[in-house]
Write a structure and sequence with these properties.
Layout: H1 2-32, H2 36-39, H3 52-98, H4 102-116, H5 121-131, H6 137-160, H7 165-173, H8 178-186, H9 191-206, H10 210-215, H11 224-234, H12 239-259, H13 261-274
Helix pairs in contact: 1-12, 3-6, 3-9, 3-11, 3-12, 4-6, 6-9, 6-13, 7-8, 9-13, 11-12
């Protein structure tokens, strides 16, 4: 009886996932390869004319190849931001876990505040303007790092809690300083949770729309999500081109999540169990 109930629950969950995720994705793909006239119907009908190459070419060439520039900007933003998040979060988590005290308690409160308190757009713009980093890629990178650091610190700290302190003591007896201890002994042990942080942060930053819109305006600085906003106003009657743009933007993070889903779950679960 339990087996039947479990099978029924799994079947219901699978059906719900299919309706919520696969049906909209299939609709998006079908609309993206239709001609302009058929795409206006916005239905699940099979394309009478497959315009895969034509729609793809039109979207790429639109607005002087803005989508290609956006992909380059998003790639730079994602790679640099994720690298900084991994290094800074791992180092901060190691210190917070190994050196508990009043300062550590205050730091933990600030980390949790970063998850709870929503970002303030206007004060952040004022700060970036004062630093001369507003409307620049380095300024947006700092914003993404600041907003993504708290979540990464919590993951790293849960994992570091399972690493015995005897390793630290043995390394220090062998003459390792603080930096050498971390990068030569501790950081290599954080590989599972590091992969999790890289993948989750990369998908979040690549898909970010609000921060690039406010802190890095302009077509030359546009990221892929901002181009979708611009395409919506430009092709509001050409649904085939709009959905083709959505497909081109959606597929990279989707593939990343599909192929590395097990590593994401494994890293988060290991940190939760060991912490």
């Amino acid at each position: 009886m339990r087996a039947v109930r479990r099978f029924g629950a799994e079947a219901v969950a699978l059906a719900a996932a299919t309706v919520i995720f696969l049906v909209p994705f299939a609709f998006m793909l079908l609309t993206a390869v239709k001609n302009e006239k058929q795409a206006t119907d916005l239905d699940f009908s099979w394309p009478t004319e497959w315009r895969i190459v034509q729609n793809f070419t039109e979207v790429i060439e639109a607005r002087d190849f803005v989508l290609l520039r956006a992909y380059l900007n998003s790639t730079i933003l994602t790679v640099v931001s994720v690298a900084l998040i991994v290094v800074f979060a791992a180092m901060a988590a190691f210190v917070l876990q190994r050196r508990a005290g009043r300062i550590g308690s205050v730091a933990n409160f600030l980390v949790l505040s970063g998850l709870i308190i929503p970002p303030a757009i206007v004060p952040t713009i004022w700060l970036l303007q004062a630093l001369g980093l507003f409307k620049t890629m380095p300024g947006l990178i700092l914003v993404e790092v600041a907003f993504g650091l708290s979540y990464a610190v919590l993951l790293f700290r849960a994992f570091i809690a399972a690493i015995p302190r005897e390793l630290d003591e043995a390394a220090m007896i062998d003459g390792c300083g603080g930096m050498r201890l971390f990068f030569r002994v501790i950081f290599p042990l954080l590989r599972p949770v590091t992969i999790t942080v890289i993948l989750t942060s990369a998908v979040a930053i690549f898909n970010d729309f609000v921060n690039p819109l406010y802190f890095l305006p302009g077509d030359d600085n546009a990221t892929v999500q901002v181009t979708l906003y611009n395409f919506q106003s430009q092709y509001n009657t050409q649904w085939n081109l709009l959905f083709m743009d959505i497909v081109l933007i959606t597929i990279p993070p989707l593939l990343l999540f599909v192929f590395f889903n097990r590593k994401i779950v494994a890293g988060m679960t290991a940190g939760a169990i060991k912490g």
